[in-house]
Amino acid sequence: QSYCHRLQHDMYFLTSTSRLNEQVVDKIVLQLNRVYPQILTNEEAEKFRNPKASLHTRLSDLLKHLQKKGDRHCQEFYRALQINAEQLFNDLPSRKILKTPDPTEIDTDKEQYMLNDRGPVFFLACFSMAAGLALFWYCCNSETQVIGRARRILGFSPIIIGRHVRNICMLYLEDIPRH
């Protein structure tokens, strides 16, 4: 995408209220006037720095003027914007499009946050729940004769799980053969 098209795309964003202040616009105009090759002549620079005109009007006129001059002029504007207002430069809509050219691409920073926002306690709780359900299913399966082995395993459960949980499991295992 050419710089002129990018500037046309970013024009509304740049000219909206309180994005660029008077000082930053003056710095950009001065830089465009002093760089090699000279983008703005002295007369043009005076016109775009005129304090009698509103900032919105001057900025809109500057952007339109640069678009008429060509791609090189628009590129120099972006360079001046980056030097004088880097945060605004990074927030430009055209920059966001350039950063993610493929809309199906996964933003790895966001994905990493999404996977890690629960923390280790959540993981341990889910793992304990899954292990408990697996043990429960294995012990309740009528095809296997594991009740005796399960009692031996649960006999060591104060080491692994709490005493109250062990008592509930033992009562359940004692109750199964009666059914």
From TrEMBL:
Keywords from UniProt, A to Z, are: Disulfide bond, Endoplasmic reticulum, Membrane, Mitochondrion, Transmembrane, Transmembrane helix
Instruction: Give Gene Ontology CC terms.
Output: endoplasmic reticulum membrane; mitochondrial membrane
Q: Which GO terms describe its biological process?
A: regulation of apoptotic process
Predominant location: endoplasmic reticulum
CARD domain boundaries: 38-96
User: Glycosyltransferase: is it a keyword of this entry?
Assistant: no
Enumerate the transmembrane spans. 120-138
| Subcellular location field | Endoplasmic reticulum membrane; Mitochondrion membrane
Topology relative to the lipid bilayer, per the entry, is: Single-pass membrane protein
Output the InterPro entries linked to this UniProt entry.
CARD, CARD19, CARD_BinCARD, DEATH-like_dom_sf
Q: How does it assemble?
A: Associates with BCL10 by CARD-CARD interaction.
In Swiss-Prot or TrEMBL terms, this protein is called Caspase recruitment domain-containing protein 19
- Organism field: Struthidea cinerea
Phylogenetic placement of the source organism: Eukaryota, Metazoa, Chordata, Craniata, Vertebrata
Q: Which gene encodes it?
A: Card19
